[in-house]
Write a structure and sequence with these properties.
Helix content is 34%, strand content 15%. Strands 2-1-3-6-4-5 form a six-stranded mixed sheet. Strand 4, helix 5 and strand 5 form a beta-alpha-beta unit. With 208 residues, it is an alpha/beta fold. Helix 2 packs across helix 3 and helix 4 crosses helix 5. Belongs to the universal ribosomal protein uL4 family. Forms part of the polypeptide exit tunnel. Pfam families: Ribosomal_L4. Part of the 50S ribosomal subunit.
Length: 208
């Protein structure tokens, strides 16, 4: 499987790069994708929610009325959940929503996500490039040259590049990552995947 290598200005370099079938052309596994995305979203949750239960409410412990003869239900504490200002029954407590996944399953999920993008012809290979300074205008200019200004894009670099990352940071529909940080959710969330030439070998080494 071969893809043309283009410059970030939109011009064709005349070169082609071969993609590994073991990484970019496997039979996608939807369940692996589901589990990996579920874990990613679970890890984004802070889990700091908390409400006070009746043992944590400030208030008197005195019995508020006599047990019998009032014509209403018995009540022993003003902190009871049935009264306004009382504690909540089984309220939320701080917790960690994360869960473990097999490394092989996570690799399979990323391969499957990449396979879907290649199959849908939503992958472009860019010649390795850099910006002289962080400029959002330059990043927008690049997207316009590639006819992707109105699309959600994910740019994958071989190594962290401060100038490129800062240039794309203010754009809502653009995301910049590295081959090592590539995850299933980001791949599927993007309409188009922009792989820099140097990142392909790294992705293949990590996932093969």
């Amino acid at each position: 499987m071969e893809l043309s290598v283009i410059k970030y200005s939109g011009e064709d370099t005349g070169r082609k790069i071969k993609l590994s079938k073991k990484v970019f052309a496997i039979e996608p596994n939807d369940h692996a994708i589901y589990l990996d995305v579920k874990q990613y979203l679970a890890n984004q949750r802070q889990g700091t929610h908390k409400s006070k239960e009746r043992a944590e409410i400030s208030g008197s412990t005195k019995k508020i009325k006599r047990q019998k003869g009032t014509g209403t239900a018995r009540a022993g504490s003003i902190k009871s959940p049935v009264f306004r200002g009382g504690g909540r029954v089984f309220g939320p407590r701080p917790r960690n929503y994360g869960f473990k996944l097999n490394k092989k399953l996570k690799v399979l999920a990323r391969k499957s996500a990449l396979g879907y993008k290649v199959k849908d012809k939503c992958v472009a290979v860019l010649e390795d490039f850099s910006f002289e300074a962080p400029k959002t205008k330059e990043y927008i200019k690049m997207l316009e040259a590639l006819s992707l200004a109105d699309k959600k894009t994910l740019l994958v670099l071989p190594e962290p590049n401060k100038n490129i990352a800062l240039s794309g940071r203010n754009l809502k529909s653009a995301r910049v990552t590295t081959a090592e940080q590539l995850n299933t959710y980001d791949v599927l969330n993007a309409d188009n995947l922009l792989l820099s030439e140097g990142s392909i070998k790294k992705i293949e080494n990590i996932l093969s």
